[in-house]
Amino acid sequence: MIDRRVYSIDQISEAFNVLIDARSRADYDKDLELQGQTNDIGGVGNQQNFHTGIETMDLDDLETEEGQGIWYRGCRCGETRGFLIVQRELEEAVDDGEIDVGCRGCSLWLKVLFAVIDIGDRDSDDDDPKFESPGLLKKF
Asked: Which PROSITE patterns match (predicted)?
């Protein structure tokens, strides 16, 4: 669903003035984080970080550097490798099967879904886990 709200010039100017000032921006960010931690009845809810501008995608949708254990994607802010994930981060989040990555150039976030696949008996000495998109895994 596309958000088709129309904002007035005054609302846009107020938003700009809040975001351009470091102190008011910090207050605004704190308010956003608190909103993400409360439920509909005002109690404390999910204690996970609240991120605005988050997009969800599979690990296979990111570019990769073969053998380097690095996945990345450019951001619309212009940062070529705005969203960067290293294998160590995936290993730390393996139980969740997802990882939230912030852009290195702006405030956007990316939720990346992944799973570890078992290659089976391998002849190589490479004991590193292999990460794949959950959409590509076979269901038995």
From this structure: DPH_MB
> What is the residue-wise DSSP string for 65-132?
ETTTTEEEE--TTS-TT-EEEEHHHHHHTTTTTEEEEE-SSSS-EEEEE-EEE---S-SSS----EEE
User: pLDDT tens-digit profile of 41-72?
Assistant: 444 444 455 555 578 899 999 999 878 889 99
Q: Write down the architecture of domain 52-140 according to CATH.
A: Roll (3.10)
pLDDT at residue 73, rounded to an integer: 93
Q: Where do you find CATH 3.10.660.10 in the chain? A: 52-140
